[in-house]
Amino acid sequence: MPDSVEDLLTQANLKLHEDVGKEVRINLENEVKIRRLESQQAKYEADIQYLYNVIENLKTQQKYDNKTIHSLRLQLSELQSRLKDSEKTCSEKEKFILFRESQLLELEDTIYRLNK
To answer: What are residue 3's phi and psi, to 5 degrees?
Structure first.
């Protein structure tokens, strides 16, 4: 015996309620996933911003380091030049001292001979 219209409508209504219940559960699960993904996205964005800041700080430090290296190279060049000049001056003074010592020896010799 065929189901009555009322029974068919009741069954259809139950089926619809069941389907709506499934959709509600799926929507709730999706909302939870969306919140989790949004939270994860915010964390990733914060991490990316932190890394950009690290990169900028490293670039700034690199520029400073390059300037420091350049400055130190200039100082080294200047000091090497001064050292070379000092070595030249020292050599000239040594020659002068040797010359004076030879003069002194000659004079001592002359004095020695004159005292004889």
So the answer is: -65, 150
